[in-house]
Amino acid sequence: MAMNEQGARILIVDDEPQIRKLLRVTLQAYRFVIHEAATGEEGLQQAALVRPDLILLDLGLPDLPGLEVLSRIREWSLAPIIVLTAKDREEDKIVALDGGADDYVTKPFSMGELVARIRVALRHAASQSINEPVLTFGALTIDLIHRVVELNGERVKLTPTEYDLLKLLAVSAGKVVTQRHLLQQVWGDQHSESDSHYLRVYIGHLRKKLEADSTQPQFILTEPGVGYRFRSRD
Q1: Boundaries of every domain in the chain
Q2: CATH T-level assignment (fold) for domain 134-230
Q3: Which residues form the Response regulatory domain (predicted)?
């Protein structure tokens, strides 16, 4: 575990005692400092009091909708929020991500996967405060100042739209970025999810230029029905 992850404060907001216990015991073993809340209101109070480095937020809370808790925390906090949901509907995931969540995990979940996603979210949050003009992902480098992309030391020729799409995904490495957000940021507010064919075409172009095997991508990963996730930096 990276040094900046050790001792990170994690707030668990979930009304199920057995889930909180499982998360507490497991995450404490990874040297995280755990705080808990069983309701939305308690979660809001703890978030303000503890100022956690990351929040695990259940959407099915007894007093407040999880999305309302998410929205209220996002009014003042940039701490990564990973949504825990028993709902597997794509629209629920999209609404949560567009509402400010950094990631989502569907119950029942693998603790190994959850810990990995927590680490990615913490690393991404830490990198946000660092001015990095060049992003590096293995053999791929993206020079944000000069808008130059290189793979294995050789320049990759991208169209302006391809570059804008790649940049948007890369600066959010490790996070799920919804189709809606990508369309609005790259093509403008006049485009919506109904125009997702634009996205598929350009993602296909990028994969052909960046991936050794575009059918098994290593950089741009698909979150079916939701959006895309750029590989996190190791």
Answers
A1: 3-127, 134-230
A2: Arc Repressor Mutant, subunit A (1.10.10)
A3: 9-122
